[in-house]
Write a structure and sequence with these properties.
CATH topology of the largest domain: Rna Polymerase Sigma Factor, Chain: A
Number of helices: 9
Order of helices and strands: HHHHHHHHH
Structural class: mainly alpha
Number of strands: 0
CATH superfamily of the largest domain: RNA polymerase sigma factor, region 2, helix turn helix motif
Length: 192
């Protein structure tokens, strides 16, 4: 048997890659907008990462895994497009209403008004994020929700760091333009 293609030690994978499983799923979910597809892509990416772990030489295991997830998600989107397996508008609307796609904001307590305001803000933010182009959306998700550095985002997306900075600025600007008018409606002034 050829020893050069041995799988990595399980403990290396467990300590380097598995702690980033949730971030991998979150990215897949934001790109694919479908929980089952995101779960499948995350699983595929974890298998690929396990097989390729010997290729990880320094650097961020998180960024490395997210790059694998991103590539797998885009491949999945291409296959989906080719098969023309489109979710009907009614199904997509039902999924959004069920909350399959959204951000969770912390609940300050049992106050019903606070919960309603937070739910409103959550829905508005999710809609604003959804309106962004995919490159802008994934850049802001990687930075603001996954906490990656500009260098890590550039590595994940395979673009220069200047492109990352530009996309972040554009995404933040579009979110601000979308969210600020909503925050000032009715006399409330909650800026981003």
């Amino acid at each position: 048997m050829d020893d050069t293609h041995q799988p990595p030690a399980s403990s290396d994978f467990d300590t380097l890659v598995l702690p980033h499983r949730d971030a991998a799923f979150n990215l897949a979910m934001w790109i694919l907008a479908n929980q089952a597809d995101a779960e499948d892509v995350t699983q595929q990416a974890l298998v690929r990462a396990w097989r390729a772990l010997p290729q990880l030489r320094g650097g961020s295991a998180r960024a490395w895994l997210l790059k694998i997830v991103r590539n797998a998600a885009y491949s999945h989107l291409e296959r989906r497009k080719r098969s023309a397996n489109v979710v009907p508008l009614e199904e997509a609307t039902r999924r959004r209403e069920k909350g399959e796609r959204g951000l969770e904001l912390a609940d300050d307590g049992p106050n019903a008004e606070t919960r309603l305001i937070r739910a409103d803000e959550q829905a508005a933010l999710a809609a604003a994020l959804e309106a962004l182009s995919l490159p802008l959306k994934e850049t802001i998700i990687l930075r603001e929700m996954e906490g990656l550095s500009y260098h890590e985002i550039a590595a994940v997306m395979g673009v220069p760091i200047g492109t990352v900075m530009s996309r972040l600025a554009r995404a933040r600007g579009q979110l601000r333009r979308t969210m600020v008018p909503q925050a000032t409606e009715g006399g409330r002034n909650r800026a981003l």
